[in-house]
């Protein structure tokens, strides 16, 4: 592969799927939905709506994005649609992201403490 090309023609679809994964994760409400589903159970739309407080149309849009990017799966049973994680690894990814969040917030907190120790500014 030439040095000026980021990937080969055959690799591009794989990177597009990977980018889609991150697009699915790119909204705070979708992350919350995935966290709710990370308990390993199936949840109905009504349960997810009660947990998030989202209007049905907004919830449906976010769930559609998660389905499109293969992060969740759904089954219709009678008049209810049940959602679950498509892969157990999504829960693992969320756990790693949570640990990273804690590290970042801890670092930011330390930086805030450093700012508090700066000399006062005078006008």
UniProtKB/TrEMBL annotation:
<dbReference type="Pfam" id="PF12840">
    <property type="entry name" value="HTH_20"/>
</dbReference>
<keyword id="KW-0805">Transcription regulation</keyword>
<protein>
    <submittedName>
        <fullName>ArsR family transcriptional regulator</fullName>
    </submittedName>
</protein>
<dbReference type="InterPro" id="IPR011991">
    <property type="entry name" value="ArsR-like_HTH"/>
</dbReference>
<dbReference type="InterPro" id="IPR051011">
    <property type="entry name" value="Metal_resp_trans_reg"/>
</dbReference>
<feature type="domain" description="HTH arsR-type">
    <location>
        <begin position="10"/>
        <end position="105"/>
    </location>
</feature>
<dbReference type="InterPro" id="IPR036390">
    <property type="entry name" value="WH_DNA-bd_sf"/>
</dbReference>
<dbReference type="InterPro" id="IPR001845">
    <property type="entry name" value="HTH_ArsR_DNA-bd_dom"/>
</dbReference>
<keyword id="KW-0238">DNA-binding</keyword>
<dbReference type="InterPro" id="IPR036388">
    <property type="entry name" value="WH-like_DNA-bd_sf"/>
</dbReference>
<keyword id="KW-0804">Transcription</keyword>
């Amino acid at each position: 592969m030439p040095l000026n090309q980021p990937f080969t023609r055959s690799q591009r679809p794989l990177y597009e799927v990977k980018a889609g994964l991150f697009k699915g994760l790119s909204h705070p409400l979708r992350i919350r939905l995935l966290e709710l589903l990370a308990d390993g159970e199936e949840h109905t739309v009504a349960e997810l709506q009660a947990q998030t407080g989202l209007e049905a149309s907004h919830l449906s849009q976010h769930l559609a994005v998660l389905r499109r990017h293969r992060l969740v799966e759904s089954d219709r049973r009678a008049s209810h649609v049940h959602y679950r994680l498509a892969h157990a690894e999504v829960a693992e990814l969320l756990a790693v992201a949570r640990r990273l969040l804690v590290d970042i917030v801890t670092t930011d907190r330390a930086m805030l403490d450093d700012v508090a120790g700066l000399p006062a500014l005078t006008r």
